[in-house]
Amino acid sequence: MSSPLTSSLTPPAQPPARKPRSLFTLWLLLAMSAAPIVAAFFLFYVVHPSGKPPYGALVEPQRPIPLDLSLKTLDGKPYSLRRLEGYWLMVMAAPGACDKQCQQSLFYMRQIRIAQGDNRDQIVRVWLVTDDAPINPGVAEPAEGTLILRGHQKQLAAWLPNEAGQLQGPTWLVDPFGHLMMQFPANPDPTKIRRVLAKLLYNNAGIKFKHVESVQ
Question: What is the pLDDT of residue 18?
Fold first, then answer.
């Protein structure tokens, strides 16, 4: 039994030593904050994203609808594609005889537009007839709802990308600002075009374009 004097001389018990605070949480927060920046630098300097679409090719630089592009309706009335600003235009070119490949393009454009569901009203299909030949009556079904306009071969070839003046085959895309901006190959994969177009419509969903002219 300790005496009162001895007890008063006993040093008080020391509090337990505090463990150093772990820096793991701090480093984790820093890593999470820096991850997007690091990923952006990696993609830009290492991966070198090309910005190419998953299908088709960008028209670079984009080509506005030419002011002097002379087009006429089938009954001979002048028509300007600029009236369709505010719409996405799927454009093809072919002679009036419209062979099998031409009919296939008309069919694909129709189906791709239908597949866009509620967004299909933002799309106008355009067939630019490259000669004065009568329109093949056999294309009435795939061409139904397509805006058919006659144009001059040279003017069209100066606007639409082509090889040696050959216009039939590709399908072009004109954005709602009136800029020719994409080209899809001849004999395309319509499913891939549908996906590209759906993505464009989705990305531009927040933009309210003014339709100069209503199109059915």
Answer: 67
